Amino acid sequence: MMKVGDKVPSATLYTMGPQGSTTVSTEEVFAPNKKVVAFALPGAFTPT
To answer: What is the pLDDT of residue 11?
Structure first.
């Protein structure tokens, strides 16, 4: 479980936008001095 102030591990994230699928690194998203709210939920029709 992560806590406030923990560093996010380095990873590549996949996003879907108007131009199609793209990638972004966690270093870009969670850059220093940048406030971010991370939200996640289980996929549809998966056991939770």
So the answer is: 93
Q: Which residues of 6-37 are buried (b: 16+ CB within 10 A; e: fewer)?
A: eeeeeeeeeeeeeeeeeeeeeeeeeeeeeeee
pLDDT tens per residue across all 48 residues of the chain: 788 878 888 999 888 889 899 999 999 888 888 888 877 777 788 776
Domain boundaries, the chain: 1-48
Alpha-carbon distance of 32 to 35, in angstroms, equals 8
Q: How far is CA 36 from the centre of its chain?
A: 9
SS3 24: strand
